[in-house]
Amino acid sequence: MSDVEKFRSEVRGWLRSHLTGGFADLKGRGGPGREHEAHAERLAWERHMAAHGWTCVGWPEEYGGRGATLEEQVAFHEEYALADAPARVGHIGEQLLGPTLIAFGTAAQRARFLPPIAAVGELWCQGYSEPGAGSDLAAVRTRAERDGDQWVVTGQKVWTSQAHEADWCFVVARTDPGSTRHHGLSYLLVPLRAPGVEIRPIVQLTGTSEFNEVFFDGARTDAAHVVGAPGDGWKVAMATLGFERGVSTLGQQVGFRRELEAVIALARRNGAAADPHLRDRLARAWTGLETIRSNALRTLSGAAAGAPGPEASIGKIFWATWHRELGALAMDVCGAGGMLAAGEPYDLTDWQRLYLFSRSDTIYAGSNEIQRNIIAERVLGLPKEPRP
């Protein structure tokens, strides 16, 4: 048995023996459109994982991780998804900020922030998008001014996932008043449970409020809480996005496979599989998922030494478009009955929730349009779009 298979077996065995008792009820809980489910219980589960060394498995051991290889990290995320374990609560800190601090942070920043992330003692959210700067991150207007040994942050962020549960936010802000576009931006770590911060949940199509508006009105953070040098925010923010599209997407695809298998099973039960058009779409969905996995493995193999490069945008377009189409396919398999709510006042079925939430897949974390620009300019070397 190879080292990877031994590691996979260890993960599988630990999940089998610990996802029991009260934790067994958490199977399948959380996830897109269902982030509100059993939050406190999922937080307790994740802290239980941390106590047994199963958070941050890909981090170096010196920072509280297991130093798992890329192949072992893939095995972990796949086994976690195969066990139907609950959606992670601390993934933004673990998968996005943690690797960013390991790559760009100071020794003091790592000592202060990495241990609470590994222990799931502090939760994080991402302060990128703004009302006038969604996928166009270079257009941010939130500003931060130096005042002695602090930064003073003023502005608004929007679509901030899990801000209402988070303790901290990594914020891209303009620290050079005369700068434009990618220049003069800084990457700041800002406490959310402090004066000058207001968080307003946004109700989604699913009826839940996974993301929020965040207002900074003179909010303060220590001067030392800038990652990289002031003005290097664009480089650091792009690296964070690369980590976001990293190894954990393999676990995500296991979840996608489970959803597809459930749609196929439904089509067989209700007779929809007899429709040649729907049967063809189901087959295309299966081949599409295989393509997504192969591309993800290829991209990750080429980025084993660090954050995935701009090629990761190819994977983002693949899975986002595929998942959105799966939601539409699920509703077509359900037929006319899929238009009816499961109960009052707005009780959705899993298929309806999938369809509604997957509308956002091609928008968040960089819209498909932005991903195509990145691929054209930074992967293929094509000329940039002319700006007015």
From TrEMBL:
<keyword id="KW-0560">Oxidoreductase</keyword>
<keyword id="KW-0274">FAD</keyword>
<dbReference type="Pfam" id="PF02771">
    <property type="entry name" value="Acyl-CoA_dh_N"/>
</dbReference>
<protein>
    <submittedName>
        <fullName>Acyl-CoA dehydrogenase</fullName>
    </submittedName>
</protein>
<dbReference type="GO" id="GO:0050660">
    <property type="term" value="F:flavin adenine dinucleotide binding"/>
</dbReference>
<feature type="domain" description="Acyl-CoA oxidase/dehydrogenase middle">
    <location>
        <begin position="125"/>
        <end position="217"/>
    </location>
</feature>
<dbReference type="GO" id="GO:0005886">
    <property type="term" value="C:plasma membrane"/>
</dbReference>
<dbReference type="InterPro" id="IPR006091">
    <property type="entry name" value="Acyl-CoA_Oxase/DH_mid-dom"/>
</dbReference>
<dbReference type="InterPro" id="IPR037069">
    <property type="entry name" value="AcylCoA_DH/ox_N_sf"/>
</dbReference>
<dbReference type="InterPro" id="IPR009075">
    <property type="entry name" value="AcylCo_DH/oxidase_C"/>
</dbReference>
<keyword id="KW-0285">Flavoprotein</keyword>
<dbReference type="InterPro" id="IPR013786">
    <property type="entry name" value="AcylCoA_DH/ox_N"/>
</dbReference>
<dbReference type="Pfam" id="PF02770">
    <property type="entry name" value="Acyl-CoA_dh_M"/>
</dbReference>
<comment type="similarity">
    <text>Belongs to the acyl-CoA dehydrogenase family.</text>
</comment>
<feature type="domain" description="Acyl-CoA dehydrogenase/oxidase C-terminal">
    <location>
        <begin position="231"/>
        <end position="380"/>
    </location>
</feature>
<dbReference type="InterPro" id="IPR052161">
    <property type="entry name" value="Mycobact_Acyl-CoA_DH"/>
</dbReference>
<dbReference type="InterPro" id="IPR036250">
    <property type="entry name" value="AcylCo_DH-like_C"/>
</dbReference>
<dbReference type="GO" id="GO:0016627">
    <property type="term" value="F:oxidoreductase activity, acting on the CH-CH group of donors"/>
</dbReference>
<feature type="domain" description="Acyl-CoA dehydrogenase/oxidase N-terminal">
    <location>
        <begin position="5"/>
        <end position="119"/>
    </location>
</feature>
<dbReference type="Pfam" id="PF00441">
    <property type="entry name" value="Acyl-CoA_dh_1"/>
</dbReference>
<dbReference type="InterPro" id="IPR046373">
    <property type="entry name" value="Acyl-CoA_Oxase/DH_mid-dom_sf"/>
</dbReference>
<dbReference type="InterPro" id="IPR009100">
    <property type="entry name" value="AcylCoA_DH/oxidase_NM_dom_sf"/>
</dbReference>
